[in-house]
Amino acid sequence: MEEMQEEVNKKNDEKVQKRKEDIIKQKNTKFDKALQSAKQKFKEEKKEATSQVFDQIMNEQTKEMKFEGKLIYSSHTNDCNMLCEEIEMALCDLTEAFVGFDMEWPVSYRVGKEDKTALIQICTAPDTCYLFHISCMGCIPSNLKSLLLNKHIKKVGVNIESDIWKLERDFDIHVIDIIKNSMEDIGVLANKILGCKENWSLEGLVKHLFNHKINKDPILRKGDWSKYPLSEEQKCYAATDAYVSYKVYEKLVNM
């Protein structure tokens, strides 16, 4: 009997020992998995941090493209009419006349409400840009309307069609002829020439074609464009968008 009891005790001890070993093994396995997971997470976070630092350094080293030429700012109807007449006369003599085009308006935070166009930017040459502050004029002056409708002067920009349609909603101007005859979306043009199907932004085109960046400060972009006078920062921001559109189109058609 004693021998049998010893055998039973021995087996029980072995079971207890085996159970202890299994528990230790399970704990070690969980610890190893947790350690491996922590190492992987640390590795990924380190990689992401390194990537962010690299992107920041590259962004700081990337040259900014901005307009630094002659900027003509007009806020009066008569002045605008005179300037637009001069622009038409100068450009109509060119074989293929085009202008960089953009618009600005205050951001509305009311649902279903969009403020009227406040500013129209027209870049006629790499060193010349016009800002027409039409919110100060109350309408689109007749000669500015004539310039926009002139089928011999192509208006170029990113998503320009939506801007042109906004002019019709905001003012008494029928834009279908502009869309049909004298408008070029440089994002669509880029896809044709580069053989791709990208949804281009102006920043993306500048980065791809020139390896430059442009200022898209949200505070400036969402500022009050109807307020007179515009700040120097607003003027530079607005002129740059039209200027960059001009340069992108010029680059694309010469590729």
From TrEMBL:
Keywords tagged on the record: Exonuclease, Hydrolase, Magnesium, Metal-binding, Nuclease, Nucleus
Record localization: Nucleus
One of the Pfam families matching this protein, by short name: DNA_pol_A_exo1
Location of the 3'-5' exonuclease domain: 71-255
Keyword Transmembrane listed: no
Signal peptide: none
InterPro entries: 3'-5'_exonuclease_dom, 3-5_Exonuclease_domain, RNaseH-like_sf, RNaseH_sf
GO molecular function, a single term: metal ion binding
GO biological process: nucleobase-containing compound metabolic process
Positions in coiled-coil regions: none
Main localization (coarse): nucleus
Extent of Basic and acidic residues compositional bias: 7-22
Family: Belongs to the WRNexo family.
Purpose of the protein: Has exonuclease activity on both single-stranded and duplex templates bearing overhangs, but not blunt ended duplex DNA, and cleaves in a 3'-5' direction. Essential for the formation of DNA replication focal centers. Has an important role in maintaining genome stability.
Protein name per Swiss-Prot or TrEMBL: 3'-5' exonuclease
Species of the source: Mytilus coruscus (Sea mussel)
Organism taxonomic ancestry: Eukaryota, Metazoa, Spiralia, Lophotrochozoa, Mollusca
